[in-house]
From TrEMBL:
<dbReference type="InterPro" id="IPR017853">
    <property type="entry name" value="GH"/>
</dbReference>
<dbReference type="Pfam" id="PF00128">
    <property type="entry name" value="Alpha-amylase"/>
</dbReference>
<keyword id="KW-0868">Chloride</keyword>
<comment type="subunit">
    <text>Monomer.</text>
</comment>
<dbReference type="GO" id="GO:0005975">
    <property type="term" value="P:carbohydrate metabolic process"/>
</dbReference>
<dbReference type="InterPro" id="IPR031319">
    <property type="entry name" value="A-amylase_C"/>
</dbReference>
<keyword id="KW-0378">Hydrolase</keyword>
<keyword id="KW-0119">Carbohydrate metabolism</keyword>
<keyword id="KW-0106">Calcium</keyword>
<dbReference type="GO" id="GO:0046872">
    <property type="term" value="F:metal ion binding"/>
</dbReference>
<keyword id="KW-0479">Metal-binding</keyword>
<comment type="similarity">
    <text>Belongs to the glycosyl hydrolase 13 family.</text>
</comment>
<feature type="domain" description="Alpha-amylase C-terminal">
    <location>
        <begin position="411"/>
        <end position="499"/>
    </location>
</feature>
<dbReference type="InterPro" id="IPR006048">
    <property type="entry name" value="A-amylase/branching_C"/>
</dbReference>
<dbReference type="InterPro" id="IPR006046">
    <property type="entry name" value="Alpha_amylase"/>
</dbReference>
<feature type="domain" description="Glycosyl hydrolase family 13 catalytic">
    <location>
        <begin position="34"/>
        <end position="402"/>
    </location>
</feature>
<feature type="signal peptide">
    <location>
        <begin position="1"/>
        <end position="23"/>
    </location>
</feature>
């Protein structure tokens, strides 16, 4: 009897731990929402307003925000200074702790979750008398960061990463000279856990773990398991775990594999970004998208955080090189984004950029130091140096499309044997793409009830009107779909809520 009770207790512990870990794969979105946006380098006050005025009403599920902790003040204020920590104080060019907490509260109130980009693989590199955005100072050359505090006892010995086929070098040496923390040490684990738990107490829903590839999975597991459940006072369910998505760049051929991290949390699937760029640049035919997903070498859908571009590879950094699409190739970029959002694979993230002419350039400023707020135009677009892809009609309407068709499968796939494709999402939505150098004009099965529908790519539904194309669906569910080669957009999309 005693043994059976012990066995039962062990089983219960195992089940509870399993549920605990599994919960880290749930983005904790409000009901009916499926996609996050990365508002790269936005200020906290501006994000709060954007949640209330745009993201919430348009059905976005969450925001990935730039690193929130104090970073080094670098000459000319490049974007990458945010990835060189000085301390875990919540003071950056985006705002202070009070502004951050207010943003999280206001976004949660309108059903938009906040995911923090957390940097704890390393501290800053060699900057003599380094000064941080919160006024803290450090001596990186001696691995001294008193505002944490960290000393040279908390870091790996100095060495450079020269060989990515040596996993020990990748995880124990310094990434581009940044002082590499030793996450196996209890003091370091304590400081990181305190930092993450503080963010949870302020209402965040999860974390993007920067440079996870450069940390040992067993060390990350210890840290993740000590992080608190999400805050019920901020509206999360009892026992809800923070969503964890880890940056692991893996296009194959290296010692560290993305598969080593999938039991800990979701992984950023850079192979998706690389492959979708090749397809919509014309290096692969669209017809091959029929088996999009793990057959392309991607992780399983529930483990893959997917995107067309991110803040690194849109600048040619990280992985993918010239194949990566960004806002500068706008037609192909919108088509790739629409396909990502129309297809059921993966956990989707939309990029929202500022314009850049060189790869180091930081966000727009008012005076060379302080970040400028985006300027919003009458057509919802941004100016003032901000691109705001998430405000492009072709993208935010497809975020809504993904919400509407959630839970349905692809059916009635059609292609012309080349670069024209179309498919239904159950009986809720239909999408078509023309990547050829000639027009698409043919009768296709939409899987939708008879009626007139507004194409959400070329326009928006307004009461009983439509500012874009109208699609007439017959009693058999078929419609004549037309996308000319010369059109601004190479995509057409309709769903049951776009019926006029």
């Amino acid at each position: 009897m005693f043994l059976s009770k012990v066995s039962l207790c062990l089983t219960l512990i195992f089940v509870l731990c399993s549920r605990n870990i599994e919960a880290q794969f749930n983005p904790n979105y409000a009901s009916g929402r499926t996609t996050m946006v990365h508002l790269f380098e936005w200020k906290w006050d501006d994000i709060a307003v954007e949640c209330e005025n745009f993201l919430g009403p348009k059905g976005f599920g969450g925001v990935q925000v730039s690193p929130v902790n104090e970073n080094v003040v670098a000459a000319s204020r490049p974007w990458w200074e945010r990835y060189q920590p000085i301390s875990y104080l919540l003071t950056t060019r985006s705002g202070n702790e009070q502004q951050f907490a207010d943003m999280v509260r206001r976004c949660n109130n309108v059903g938009v979750r906040i995911f923090v980009d957390v940097v704890f693989n390393h501290m800053t590199g060699d900057n003599v008398n380094a000064r941080g955005t919160g006024g803290s100072t450090a001596d990186p050359s001696n691995k001294s960061f008193p505002a944490v505090p960290y000393s040279n006892l908390d870091f790996h010995p100095t060495c450079s990463i020269n060989n990515y086929n040596d996993k020990y070098e990748v995880r124990n040496c310094e990434l581009v000279g940044l002082k590499d923390l030793d996450q196996s040490k209890s003091w370091v684990q304590d400081r990181v856990v305190d930092f993450l738990n503080h963010l949870i107490s302020l209402g965040v829903a999860g974390f993007r773990v920067d440079a996870a590839k450069h940390m040992w999975p067993e060390d990350l597991e210890k840290i993740y398991n000590r992080v608190n459940n999400l805050s019920t006072t901020h509206g999360f369910d009892t026992g809800a775990r923070p969503f964890i998505f880890q940056e692991v760049i893996d296009l194959g051929g290296e010692a560290v594999s993305k598969n080593e991290y999938t039991n800990l949390g979701v992984v950023t699937e850079f192979a998706h970004s690389n492959s979708i760029g090749k397809v919509f640049r014309g290096k692969d035919q669209l017809r091959w998208l029929i088996n999009w997903g793990p057959q392309w070498g991607f992780l399983n859908s529930d483990r893959a955080l997917i995107f067309v571009d991110n803040h690194d590879n849109q600048r040619g950094h990280g992985a993918g090189g010239a194949d990566i699409l960004n806002y500068k190739t706008s037609k192909q970029y919108k088509m790739a984004s629409a396909f990502m959002l129309a297809h059921p694979f993966g956990i989707t993230r939309v990029m929202s950029s500022f314009a850049f002419d060189n790869t180091d350039q930081g966000p727009p400023t008012t005076d060379g130091q302080n970040i400028a707020s985006p300027i919003f135009n009458d057509d919802n677009s941004c100016s003032g140096g901000w691109v705001c892809e998430h405000r492009w009609r072709q993208i935010y309407n497809m975020v809504g499309f993904r919400n509407i068709v959630a839970g349905t499968a692809i059916q009635n796939w059609w292609d012309n044997g080349s670069n024209q494709i179309a498919f239904c999402r159950g009986s809720k939505g239909f999408v078509a793409f023309n990547g050829d150098s000639y027009d698409l004009n043919t009768s296709l099965q939409t899987c939708l009830p008879a009626g007139t529908y507004c194409d959400i790519i070329s326009g928006v539904k307004s009461d009983s009107g439509c500012t874009g194309k109208r699609v007439e669906v017959g009693s058999d569910g078929r419609a004549t779909i037309s996308i000319t080669q010369a059109e601004e957009d190479g995509t057409l999309a309709i769903h049951f809520e776009s019926k006029l």
